[in-house]
C-alpha cells in the first residue's frame, strides 16, 4: 500500500518529479507536433522514430506521476477533494475547449457546416476534445480512486491491468483511454512509496542506473521496431518499465542539476499542455507554406520547440494581467476555501 507517503513528499517540491514531468510534457508536445507536420506534409521524418520509441511510456509515465501525491489528499472531505481534483481541471477544460473551438470552428464548418460545429462542441463535454483529453480524464480517475478506496487495492489493480491488456478500441476517447491508462495512475497511487524508493536508489547508484537505462532503451527500441510492444502484457510491462526509466532519468538530472529548462517545463507542465496547440499550429503552417526548410524531421523538431516555448511565452504575457484567468482559476470558481499554495506538487499541476 501507499501508506502516508515519504517525508520528501510532504516538505518541499520534489526535484526529480519536476524533471520527469518536464520530459513527459515535452514528449507530448513532440508527438502532436511530429504527427501534425507529417500528416500535413504527407511524409515522415527522423523525429517519427523518436515519437515511436516513446509511445509505450509517454502517457503511462505522465499518469503514474499524477498518482504519486494522491495518498496525501485521498482522505480529504469530498468538497475539498472535488474542488482540487475535479473543479480545478474542469474549469481549464471548459475554458480551453472553447478557445480551441474558436480557432478550429471555421475549418470544422467547412467540413460539416455550422450545425455540425455546434454538435461537435456539445459532444466535447461527453467525450474529450483533441489534445485536452488528459485533463478531462484526470478528474474521472481521481473520483474513481477515492470512491473505491475501501475496495481491496490488488483487486482494483488487477482489474485495471486486465483493462489495459484488452486494448479496447470503441472509438470513444473516454472509454478507450480510461481502459488504457487507469492502471498507471492507480499504480502511482498504490506504489508511491516504492516509486520514491526507486528514485532514491537511482540517485545513490548512478552508474548502475545508467547501465539499467541503456538496457531498457535497447529492449524498448527493439520491441517497438518489431511491433511486439503492442502485444498484451508486453504493452503493460513496457509502460511500467518506461515510467520507471523516466523517473530514473529525472532523478539523475536532478542529482547533477543539468537541463534546468526541463525542470522548468515540468513545474509549468499544465501551462504548456493548455497552450501549446496555438504556437504549434502557427509554426507548422508557416514552415510548410514558406518552404524555407525541406526536411520534415527538422520542421517537426522546430515545431516542437515552438510549441513548448510559445506556450510559456503566452503564459508570461498573461500572468500579470487580467488575462491570467487563462492559467489561474479565479476565486469565483472555487467551491472549497482557497488556501495558500503548498510547496509540494499536487498531482498533474
- Which percent band covers the strand fraction? under 5%
- Helix/strand-derived class? mainly alpha
Note the main sheet: none
Radius of gyration: 20 Å
Low-confidence stretches: 1-11, 341-349
Q: How many strand elements?
A: 0
Distance between the termini: 24 Å
User: What's the pLDDT, averaged over the residues?
Assistant: 91
Tally of DSSP helical segments: 15
Tell me, what's the shape? globular
Helical percentage: over 70%
Following the backbone from N to C, one meets helices and strands in this order, namely HHHHHHHHHHHHHHH
What is the multimeric organization of the chains shown? single chain
Please, could you describe this protein's structure?
It is a single chain. The chain is 72% helix and 0% strand. It is mainly alpha-helical and 349 residues long. The chain is globular.
Topology:
Elements: H1 7-11, H2 15-41, H3 47-54, H4 58-67, H5 78-123, H6 133-147, H7 153-166, H8 173-190, H9 192-204, H10 206-226, H11 234-256, H12 260-267, H13 269-275, H14 277-290, H15 296-318
Helix pairs in contact: 2-3, 2-4, 2-11, 2-12, 2-13, 2-14, 2-15, 4-8, 4-11, 5-6, 6-8, 7-8, 9-11, 10-11, 13-15, 14-15
